[in-house]
Amino acid sequence: MSAGTVSAGRRPSLPMRGVLTPYLMKLRSLAPLLCLASVLQAQTPPAATPAVPDWALPGTATHKQVAPPADVHRPSTTFNTPIGLFDGQSDIGSAVVPGSASYDATTKQYTINSAGYNVWYTRDEFRYLWKKMSGDVSLAADIAYPDASGYGDRKAVLVIRHDLEDDSPEALVAVHGAGMIHLAQRPKKGVRVHDLEFRIGGRGERGNANPDALVTVVAKRIGIEKKGDSFSLWVSLEGEPMHQFGPPITLKLDAPFYVGIGFCSHLPATSDTAVLSNVVLENSAGQVR
Does residue 26 lie in a domain region? Predict the structure, then answer.
């Protein structure tokens, strides 16, 4: 056996001990750090679920969602980085779980992830992709929800609003997860939203086995037009040319204002996803298509 070989039950020979000594000393010096890391890891608590106030919880059979207290506001979180047609994006009202968005130039799809209790009442929480504009506006988009089992009141929105604060005056159109479409407005800062709501159904639709069953018809594409102080909802239910749906509303917005697309899961601490594609954004009326 050579002088540097270690055999079972024997201490290393002197040459081998000389080689190993620096490594053994380094391991001994690291031992306290390894022990400390193990203790810290054991003491690190699991990530806490963000606190959600009772008023922000969605409505259920046993709970009614109500308007937030008048003094509740959160500053919006804004990113001034262009994305597709838009100049930037914001977490309006800064939901307790941050949102995100991406754009695929090949498919012309905007994927928006957002939590948020609602876009309603006296303040909003949603992810918003925006462009600063003035004058008349035409905005339209296809709407899709990748997760078919998401909350029924989640909403993909097309919004024209005065500013990026959570209680901004605004006009918006939306497709809800359960199919309702609406044209809504907050006429003044801090005032509760009011709207015109449309629920569309058809019989003998979607291959239903019972021709008498009434099933929901979900709009494939929606649009909003601003013409002066008049705002109108535009719809394509099944791919037909866009057409105005219901009467317009009147709202005064001082220029410049913000125009864009967004999404809210309607679950204050749970993120969901909407995909908005084939977006049309024109700085004139009569271009919704």
Answer: no
Give the list of residues 6+ apart from residue 70 with CB closer than 8 angstroms, or none: 122, 190
Separation of alpha carbons 85 and 129, rounded Å: 9
Integer-rounded Cα radius of gyration of the chain = 28
Cis status, amide bond into 22, omega within 30 of 0: no
Burial of 228 (0-12, 13-18, 19+ CB in 10 A): exposed
Sign of CA dihedral 67, 63, 263, 94: positive
What is the domain-level CATH number for residue 123? 2.60.120.200
Number of domains in the chain: 1
Domain span including residue 151: 54-60+68-282
For residue 27, tell me if it sits in a domain.
no
Assigned domain for 149 exists: yes
Where does residue 183 rank: exposed (0-12), middle (13-18), buried (19+ CB within 10 A)? buried
In a domain? residue 2: no
- Give yes or no for a contact between 158 and 171, defined as CB atoms under 8 angstroms apart: no
- Contacts with 55 (C-beta within 8 Å, 6 or more apart), sequence order: 65, 66, 67, 68, 69
192 Cβ contact partners less than 8 Å away, ≥ 6 residues apart = 67, 121, 122, 186
Along the 289 residues of the chain, how does pLDDT read in single tens digits? 444 444 444 555 545 455 545 554 554 655 555 554 454 455 555 566 678 999 999 988 898 889 999 999 999 999 999 999 999 999 999 999 999 999 999 999 999 999 999 999 999 999 999 999 999 999 999 999 999 999 999 999 999 999 999 999 999 999 999 999 999 999 999 999 999 999 999 998 766 778 888 989 999 999 999 999 999 999 999 999 999 999 999 999 999 999 999 999 999 999 999 999 999 999 999 999 9
